[in-house]
Design brief:
This protein is an all-alpha fold. It contains two helices and no strands. About 95% of the residues lie in helices and about 0% in strands. It is rod-shaped.
Amino acid sequence: MIAQSDKYMSEAAAEIYRMNADEIIKEQCRAREDYYRHERHMKKRLEEAEQRATVAEQEIQDAKQETQAALQRITELEALLKQANENQK
């Protein structure tokens, strides 16, 4: 009521409102920037995790192949040993 009847009070009230509105807008902008920053960070972490998973999968495949090769070599050596034992008899 006072602000409506007094020109100076009306101007002061309008300025206070404008300043508060600016702060609200600034806070919304900060919140949006924080959100985008967080999203970029999470995307980067996800990409890094996917890369580590890809490397781990390749290492597992390599280990499986090495294991297969070792098992095959063991089978061959067992066959040679068996043949050698039979020849000695």
